[in-house]
Amino acid sequence: MPHTSLNPTTNQVIQTYASWDSHHLEQALEKTRHTQPAWAQTTFPQRAEVLRNVSMQLHAQRDRYATLITQEMGKPLREARAEVEKCTTVCDYYAQHAEEFMRAEPVDSEAGKSYVAHYPLGVVLAIMPWNFPFWQAFRAAAPALMAGNALLLKHAPNVPQCALAIEAIFRDCGLPDNVFTNLMIGIEQVPNVIASPHVHAVTLTGSEAAGRKVATCAGQHLKKCVLELGGSDPFIVLHDADMELAVNMAVASRFMNCGQSCIAAKRLIVVPQIADEFLRELKTRVVALKAGDPLDDATQIGPMARADLRDELHRQITDSIAQGAVAVTGCKPVEREGFFYQPSILDQVTPKTCAYHEELFGPVATVIRATSEADALRIANETRFGLGSSIWSKDTARAEKLAAHIQAGCTFINGMVKSDPRLPFGGVKASGYGRELSRLGMLEFVNAKTVWVR
Fold first, then answer.
1. So what's the pLDDT on residue 447?
2. Could you tell me if residue 408 is left (phi over 0), alpha (psi between -120 and 50 degrees) or otherwise beta?
3. Does domain 234-413 have CATH number 3.50.40.10?
4. Would you say 304 and 258 are in contact if contact means Cβ atoms under 8 Å apart?
5. 349-373 residue pLDDT tens
């Protein structure tokens, strides 16, 4: 399967790359495995220097990389710039903290000396998605490389230029050859990579279906696996919420990246006291969103990344309307060149509609009306997903008590769910397992080795 860079704004092919054959792939795996031990022997200051160089390169060439992201997957240029800048933060964070995170931990025991030491696992395969083509790759690479691992990147086939650019950044900034390698391979070749004796662990950010396949293959070959999968994040608005803040953040969370984010506010759950007011204010702001050419700084909504994603979203919306949901605004593709979809709102979303149960990966806000605060909590947990969640209330103490009962990897109170290098990120239930970022994310791909000395 070729890797095609196609501009979703114009539906024009930019460039196509052939997939590697099995011989080319095996050579790349062998080179990475043979190079990794030397990288593991470098000092933390040496590794940190590489990551700081990468950070400076990203900052200096921000607009160049942002334009590449926008042209390849349709993200508005200002959002793409922010994505590139965020990559600098994860590089700087691990450059500063990796040595501390990997430091041996003394343990009291009957031994004269005992401690837990942390050593790299070896070669990590990172299977990354297209929706944040730079950030997802860097948040996997920065901790893995600073721990002394080598990294193989299997990026999404529709962002090959981003993948090649990331590989070039590391190479140009002093990382030894073959410590970070972009695998130009098809999805059908991934099982062979996981099975390879040269690969020791795998991390995936992607769909629930992809997660099940990767987990099955990794389990079959006894490889460590971290999965960050889909989400259907609840956005609970209580009766005492700051309405302007809640509505503004609902729009920002739901429509950023054209709604193509695992941690977007997928389900807006509102209590009856404020439901009508919230919907009225939400519609005002959604209708005002400016859609258009994502290379125009005034654009707030660009195209969806692919035609098939837009078609699937429209099927989910039309099915939900047929099942009783109410189209408040939008809910149709845009009749123009490219893969545009109208910013949309569905009201009266109930368990009878597919929008209640399925992840809608596009620019549509679903409003679910709860009968009470307790009912809002029940609805929040009535999903197979468990990635992010948020609660909006001026009574933060009450909101914290409510947060304790939400089944998710994180709960943000009066703030939009986001990933942060300082905080662990990941989900529960069908949203996956394991953690990225923070110290916990770094230690996912190390050998926590007990050393006992009499």
1. 98
2. beta
3. no
4. yes
5. 999 999 999 999 999 999 999 999 9
Report residue 282 CA to chain centroid gap. Answer: 25
Quote the pLDDT of residue 314.
Answer: 98
Pull the structure tokens for residue 428: 């529960």
**E strand map for 128-266:** 150-154, 180-182, 201-205, 224-228, 234-237
- Phi and psi of 55, rounded to 5°? -60, -45
Under a CB-based contact definition with an 8 Å cutoff, are residues 37 and 180 in contact?
A: no
Query: In this structure, which amino acid lies at residue 261?
Result: S
Distance in angstroms (rounded) separating the CA atoms of residues 231 and 409: 10
**Mean pLDDT, residues 390-419:** 98
Which CATH number does the domain 3-229+429-453 belong to among 3.40.640.10, 1.20.120.80, 3.40.190.10, 3.40.605.10? 3.40.605.10
Q: What is the dihedral of CA 205, 208, 210, 215, to 10 degrees?
A: 90
Q: Is 400 a catalytic residue?
A: no
188: DSSP letter: G
What is the rounded distance in angstroms from the CA atom of residue 330 to the CA atom of residue 364?
Answer: 8
Q: Which candidate in 83, 228, 358, 359 is catalytic? A: 228
Q: How far apart are CA 262 and CA 127, in angstroms?
A: 15
Length of the chain (residues): 454
* Catalytic (active site) residue 262: yes
Domain boundaries in the chain?
A: 3-229+429-453, 234-413
* Measured distance CA(98)–CA(49) in Å, rounded: 12
**Distance between CA atoms of 445 and 165, rounded to whole angstroms?**
25
Q: DSSP 3-state assignment of 198?
A: coil
For residue 1, what pLDDT is reported? 73
Listed in sequence order, the DSSP H helices in 223-269 are 243-255
Same fold, 3-229+429-453 and 234-413: no
pLDDT tens, 135-176? Answer: 999 999 999 999 999 999 999 999 999 999 999 999 999 999
- Are 342 and 330 in contact, with CB atoms under 8 Å apart? yes
pTM: 0.98
Burial of 197 (0-12, 13-18, 19+ CB in 10 A): exposed
**Cross-strand pairs, 108:** none
Question: Closest Cα to residue 162, out of 52, 257, 84, 50?
Answer: 84
**Is residue 47 within 8 Å of 146, Cβ to Cβ?**
yes
Rounded CA-CA distance 321/360 in Å is 14
Of 87, 217, 262, 410, the catalytic one is 262
